[in-house]
Amino acid sequence: MTPVPIHALTAQTGRVTIQTQDTPGTCPFAIERPIMRQRWERLTFLHWPFEPADVQRLLPMGLDVETYDGAAWVALVPFFMRVATPGERRVPWASNFCETNVRTYVRDGAGRSGIWFFSLDASRLGAVATARATPYRLPYFWSSMRLGVRGSRVAYLSERRWPGPRPATSRVRIGVGSRSLPATSASSSIS
Predict the structure, then answer these.
(1) Contact predicate 80/41, CB 8 Å
(2) What is the pLDDT of residue 183?
């Protein structure tokens, strides 16, 4: 599997801005013929610190774990996705679904930052089959998933269906609080 460079993720998602080390908020290349547009909603990032050596053992050769405050960070990221063609065509049921990914942050041999996905669970089998068949061979899994909103509370549930390993489940409940201010120079602290 190939790590997804942060700049490529920025270009592919279209509506998500991720800052790169070189020039914040910019993509170093243009996508001439995009194949899809994605909109991520009800997005939650949950991060846990780990010993860098423990995470490094899970990565393929050629990738180094990226650390922050001396720790490797692993994230569980549940959200709701809307997918459309570049011309904004959608298939109502197939184009809208829940997804949860488990990721860590890496650098390749040239020192470029990227994201390594340990798993990506989605509630649409067609999306899973398509993603697994791409040249990136993304580790997608078909899961039964639910997202519920009640006032300022959001709940996510994911239970893996195919392929294994099973059981793989997550249950997340969060309370949406007040907005936080953006970090001033978080990218300069990552090593």
Answers:
(1) yes
(2) 65
Q: Over pLDDT 70: what percentage of the chain?
A: 80
| Residue 12 CA to its chain's centroid (Å) | 12
Q: Tokens 């039964």 — which residue? A: 144
What letter would DSSP give residue 14?
Answer: B
Amino acid at 140: Y
Please compute the mean of the pLDDT values over residues 23-36 and round it to a whole number. Answer: 70
Residue of 102, 93, 153 lying closest to 123 (CA atoms): 93
Q: H or E stretch including 48? A: strand 46-50
Coil vs helix vs strand at 50? strand
Exposed, middle or buried by CB within 10 Å (0-12, 13-18, 19+), for 131?
A: middle
C-alpha span between 140 and 131 (Å, rounded): 7
**pLDDT tens track for 139-167:** 999 999 999 999 999 999 999 999 888 88
Return left, alpha or beta for 123; rule: phi > 0 is left, psi -120 to 50 is alpha, else beta: alpha
Say how far apart CA 73 and CA 96 lie, in whole Å: 29
